[in-house]
Amino acid sequence: MLQRTWQFTQMDRVIYGRPFAAALAEEVQRIGARSVFILASGTLTRETDAVEQVRHALGNRMAGLCAKIAAHTPRTDVVEAANAARAANADLLVTIGGGSVTDAAKMVGLCLGNNVAEPGQLDAFAARIAADGSTQRPHIDPPPLRSIDIPTTLSAGEFNPFAGCTDTVRQVKQSYGHPLMVPLAVILDPGVTVHTPEWLFLSTGIRAVDHAVESLCSSHAQPLSDATSQQALHLLGRGLPAVKADAANVEARLNCQLGAWMSVFASQGGVPMGASHGIGHVLGGTAGVPHGYTSCIMLPHVLRYNAPVNAARQTLVSDALGRSGDPAADVVAELVAGLGLPGRLRDAGVKQEQLDQIAVESMHDRWVHTNPRRIEGPADVRKLLDAAW
């Protein structure tokens, strides 16, 4: 008899399909915040009026703005933002942008709750994952302030209490987590995503596909996540090509946002992901590959590697994407190609001489060790990287 546990996050609510500025004003009023610090995408700040809409919604509650969080959330940027939020006596964070900005808000909360004022201090709070997959998470005091997130991409990191933060000196992306690092609320407004570059919106959509696929194919899948993951693939498999065909299709954009949200129900509930995610984390932190691209490239190869042990589960992927009877790896690869996204590591700027380091570092990611087909060591990862090269 199946015996597992489903866990819930500390998120209050998700608001979808409403203009973000009006929804934000209502949420800030509901929470009772008086001093709100904004973390925003630099491009969004410079080239659109989205941040001005946030300013207007907050009025005299706005305490400050950070609009220079680089890709993969460098810890130097995080600590600088935390010091600014501390100086402003902020009592709430608001993010508007992609996954790097979302993770930055989580890390700002960690810094403020644990007296972190210098980048090197973050080492004491990072998860330690050994090459055998054993994980130690140090004690972290709860963040004293939470966030409201307005995502502009589909990677869906705003729905979980973990953050990736990169030490740019060592080129290592570290993992941090606390239950209260999850946002209080998420606002899904498809209108603001029209400013997101096409490659970024579509590739992070494949990142969401990756969430759903590895959830369905997990050795620890659960009934609720099976249902949400299949619906996520149904929405994303139709929504992403529709946005590619017509960038102004706001209904398709909302379907993609809803699909991205549903794609992470599994990880919210404790279902582990697999090697596509695990290797992808290292490709991002070590080789600078955008998160969406890591999924575009690695997921088909991981599916092929895993097929000998979970072929039956992979049929659920093909069914949900409307391609019953076809190999899931081929279905995903063709979806990626149809969106005009890269399918090879070399197309994403990864150098062949980096592959050995990536293989070794991947063994220190927890999700490599929860892959459905066991990965014994760097040599197995290197085979996957060679296949993707």
What is the gist of this entry?
β8 (162-167) and β9 form a beta hairpin. The radius of gyration is 20 Å and the shape is globular.
The total count of strands amounts to 10
Measured between the Cα atoms of the first and last residue, the distance is 42 Å
Number of helices: 14
- The structural domain count equals 2
How would you sum up the major sheet?
6 strands, parallel
Structural class: alpha/beta
Helix content: 40-55%
Describe the structure.
- This protein has 14 helices and ten strands.
- Strands 1-10-7-4-2-3 form a six-stranded parallel beta sheet, sandwiched between helices.
- Helix 1 packs parallel to helix 3, helix 4 crosses helix 5 and helix 6 packs parallel to helix 8.
- The longest helix is centred in the last third of the chain and has 30 residues.
- The chain is globular.
- The mean pLDDT is 95.
Helices, strands, pairings?
Layout: E1 13-16, H1 20-31, E2 36-40, H2 42-47, H3 50-58, E3 62-66, H4 75-87, E4 92-97, H5 99-113, E5 128-129, E6 135-136, E7 147-151, E8 162-167, E9 172-177, E10 185-188, H6 198-216, H7 223-245, H8 250-263, H9 265-268, H10 275-287, H11 291-320, H12 328-338, H13 355-362, H14 378-388
Parallel strand pairs: 1-10, 2-3, 2-4, 4-7, 7-10
Antiparallel strand pairs: 5-6, 8-9
Notable features of this structure?
389 residues; Dehydroquinate synthase-like, alpha domain; 6-stranded parallel sheet; two-stranded antiparallel sheet; 14 helices
